[in-house]
Design goal:
Length: 201
């Protein structure tokens, strides 16, 4: 009987000893190298988690979807706003999640002001000759509307178009530009800018 009790004691002692030596569950920790900025921006995230870890799941916009499974990813943000970021780490001994609410504050981009300008390769034309116009506007511009006869009709939406006058006369030219730098549009009219002669028929 004594031997049985001793054997049971040794078994329990070994089991307790083994359980006491098990690794703890992982602890999720991370930080971002930048927490504010203007979009578009790519931000580096660094994993600082503790414990034995075999997988990382990052959610950068709090939508419940995994955005990256890299340990320390770089992620691009293209819309302004406040972003909650979470990291879930998992390993043989369990999993853990760290959530940082409104961790990132990202602002809209700041564009340089829009200034509209243009030139023609020549302002006096003799005959029906294609005339090159060059946009000299500054700022973040994405759309161009040209009116070469000041009649309210858009003749071209190309940035640097060619246009051929077919009748003699004095023509005003208007350029309207728009884009992130001038969302409501900016307009320049050069009055009596082009002088055309030598057109017959």
């Amino acid at each position: 009987m004594t031997r049985i009790l001793i054997a049971l004691f040794l078994i329990l002692l070994v089991a307790f000893s083994l359980s006491g030596c098990s690794e703890p569950a992982p602890t999720a920790q991370f930080y971002a190298e930048d927490t504010t900025g203007q979009v578009p921006v790519k931000i580096q995230f660094n994993d600082l988690s503790l414990g034995e870890i075999t997988s990382w799941e990052w959610d950068f916009d709090n939508d419940g979807e995994v955005d990256s499974r890299y340990q320390s990813p770089k992620y691009g943000f293209y819309e302004p706003g406040n972003f909650t970021v979470s990291l879930t780490v998992s390993g043989p001994n369990g999993s853990d999640t760290e959530v940082k609410v409104n961790y990132l504050e990202l602002f809209p981009p700041i564009y340089p002001p829009c200034e509209v300008d243009f030139i023609a390769e020549k302002t006096t034309v003799n005959g029906r000759i294609p005339l090159q116009f060059t946009d000299k506007s500054t700022g973040n511009i994405t759309a161009w509307s040209w009116d070469f006869q000041s009649d309210g009709i858009i003749d071209s939406t190309v940035q640097n178009p060619e246009y051929m006058y077919t009748r003699n006369g004095s023509y005003s030219v208007t350029l309207i530009v728009s884009g992130p730098s001038c969302e409501e549009g900016a307009t320049l009219t050069k009055y009596h800018y082009i002088q055309v002669s030598g057109c017959s028929g």
